[in-house]
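$ run holo --ligand "zinc ion" --emit tokens
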Amino acid sequence: MSWFDCSSFWASLFGACVFTVSAAWANPSENMKVKNIIYTEEMLQSSVPEGLSRIRSNISTKSFSTGERYFPVLLVSTADYKSIDSAFVFRMFNEEGFGENGYYGSVKDYFIASSAGLFKPTFDIYPITLSNNFRSYQSDASFILPALDLLVERNDFKSRASKYEKTIPFIILHPLFKDDAEKLCGDFFNHAFALRYSINKVYSKNGYSFNDYAFIGQKAKGKSSSTNSKDVDMLGSYVHEFSHVIGLKDLYSADENGYATIGPLPYDVMSLGCYNGNGNYPPVFSAFERESMGWLKPIEIENNDSIYELKNISGMQAYAVSNPNHPNEFYLIEYRPAVGYDSKIEKSSYSGKQGKNGVFIWYFDFDETVFASNNPNKDVNHQRAEVRAVLNKSQEYFSNFSFVNKGGTANVDGVFNVVFDGNDRVCFTVKRSKTLDKCPDIASSSSVAELSSSSVSSSSVEYSSSSSLATVGLPGRHMASGMQMLLSRGILNVETPMPGKKTLRFYDAIGNMVGEHSFVESSASIDISGWNRPIFVQLDVNGRLLLAKRISTLP
Ligand SMILES: [Zn+2]
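-- output --
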């Protein structure tokens, strides 16, 4: 048996998440061939990942995608291939504002940005050396299990293990370029999977248990033998596969020739967006993905004359238009300006088409089982996760909120009169006849009140802390030292020595904005003594979210 036949198990599947480039790296117009693991019903049984069960439900099961979490990363060398330097890999995964090799931030930065600080993963890097040559490992499990056996013997692992989950999710990085590895063993494309499928059980050793994992190559194309830190793979590979580990599914699908032509190609990290900006600017999680993680609850639009204000997705806000007869079929409206990780949506590689920034109108027909199979967009005529329109400054509108399930009819006509207020927010109406020239002045308390009343929702935004001055998010890169936010006798004193425009936004417990204050000086004092209820405050500096706190003026 040749090493190409190494796994009959995989031969029965399509494999996962590998993008085999079909043309020269530099040509962005070419499509690429893809594989993705298709989970059968038999495999899944009742093991739908916790995250996705949150969609359209009030289930708030515990998962490992909120708060401060720690994950081991096995940085594996073999007898014949050496790893990239572990100190460098640690920085690449964890360093705030990491910018080497074209990366727009570290892996950790990406998840902090996507969660507005609600999920702060730390990746502990453990160098592991397997004793045999790479090609002697003939399945992903035959590579993973001996690496785990070495991991659990390490004293540094043992001393940190209390920080990990009960069943420990992990990342394993093999020392080659992914396609070179795949030539040696068909299992070795980049993928995420679970040991309960690959070896039919959770793996336990020395009292530690392991199941979910991401299996990813360390090196860039043509660099399998290099140990130079410049030759590491792109950010999008690590972010995409780890997003599977926390519960997301592939949104790309392939045509009959195996090319990735179906799905929200440049718009989503779980599609081909992980290739945006040469793979170093994966787009942040969409509102759907944030809802899947339990980080965001969209606000249902009501059919009235209100002016709807929609913050940049970094403000953790989105609107929904749901099928009244089938709550799992819905549209989501989110604002995605060309900032940060989203700044290369118009510069995707290998998507076959470029995206554009603006207000995304997503359509979803969510089915837990279909999504769990990892191919929700396989039917080109009925994609279950699709960007139906992107509205930008040319004053386009969207007026086709149509549903296919149970005769559902939307109670709003569309999204009209979209007005852009820089990168911070847009405003729109849901009635064609209601005109709008500019966003209401958010400094005016009356207009803010009007906005609040128009966006009342029965679902509440979940904040992770209930103490009166708890910091729930520190998502910023370039965090300034000397920054302070203190509440004293009803006066909120904010000090931030960074230059630029600072904006404080205040929200009530269900996510409605109740006030905003902008300033350019290094400090500001805001009287909030009249607000006798808990308030959530976010601080932006030059449009970048730096701090989120829950504060209370209650005694
Ligand atoms: Zn994938």
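-- notes --
The pocket of zinc ion is lined by residues 16-17, 36, 240, 244, 250 (CB under 6 Å).
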